[in-house]
Write a structure and sequence with these properties.
By secondary structure, the chain is an alpha+beta fold. It has five helices and 19 strands. It has two domains: about 110 residues, Lipocalin (Beta Barrel); about 110 residues, Lipocalin (Beta Barrel).
Length: about 260
């Protein structure tokens, strides 16, 4: 009897473990799972248009988090994707000045997500709907493939320091440029003076050699842009390309945001 009782207990223990294993393996999948690691870019907007034309870009880099921009500042925060609706927590944003037609794009973005849009995903197409607006977005890898780092002319639209990310009319007017040829030849403009040099590219790391520049005197606003450009193109920087945008971050703390020409 003792042997039978022990065997019965062993069987019950195995059954209990199997039950636990089955319950763990049957844990429901996150509703966000098909979105994770992907970025979507709007292709059409029906209803309330995006000031400045957007596009709306939505990123799902981490579980239960969202990042988005409608053409100016980037907003990030927590998000719940249950029941086919996106409910965000408070969204923290960058603090760049939004110029011209983009001036109201941040308010559009805040209002759109405050309305708790429904979402549906079919393959590479994401649809977001509120009572007033329907936005259709396409996976960025298809809508806007990454531009090559070399051979592309990049135009500066943002300067970056440890304290601030800045866009301004002075930066736009300067339209500083950068191009790295396939053989490592570096050329461009600071927005005031032209420069040439060499750049070694290894993956996402760029090592800049000494630059030869012209010596024209620059107006104060343009001189500030020039200083930011030259500080970034000194020594070693990390290059990150996303679609038609490039971010250069130097080990000295300075950086640039650029778009493909």
């Amino acid at each position: 009897m003792r042997i039978l009782r022990s065997a019965a207990l062993a069987i019950l223990a195995v059954a209990a473990l199997a039950g636990c294993s089955n319950s763990q393996s049957a844990a429901p999948e996150s509703p966000q799972s098909d979105l994770l690691g992907r970025t979507f870019v709007s292709t059409t907007v029906e209803g309330t248009p995006i000031p400045g034309g957007g596009p709306l870009t939505v990123e799902f880099a981490e579980p239960d988090r969202i990042a988005a921009t409608a053409g100016c500042n980037r907003a990030v925060g927590t998000a719940d994707f249950s029941n086919g609706v996106i409910v965000t927590g408070p969204l923290a944003t960058t603090m760049m000045a939004c110029m011209g037609d983009n001036a109201d794009s941040d308010q559009w973005l805040a209002s759109f997500f405050a309305a708790q849009p429904s979402w549906s995903l079919e393959g590479n197409t994401l649809t977001l709907r509120t009572d007033e607006t329907t936005v259709t977005l396409l996976d960025r890898k298809i809508a806007q493939p990454d531009r090559p780092l070399t051979g592309t002319t990049w135009v500066v639209d943002t300067t970056i320091t440890p304290d601030a990310v800045t866009s301004s009319l002075a930066i736009d007017n300067a339209a500083a440029t950068l191009q790295i040829a396939d053989d490592g030849t570096l050329s461009g403009s600071t927005g005031c003076n032209s420069f040439t040099g060499k750049a070694g590219v290894s993956g996402e790391t760029i090592t800049f050699g000494p630059l030869a520049t012209t010596r024209r005197a620059c107006p104060p606003d343009t001189a500030e842009v020039e200083q930011a450009v030259l500080a970034t193109l000194t020594g070693t920087a990390t290059a990150t390309v996303e679609s038609d945008r490039l971010q250069l971050m130097n080990t000295n703390g300075s950086g640039l945001g650029l778009h493909a020409q």
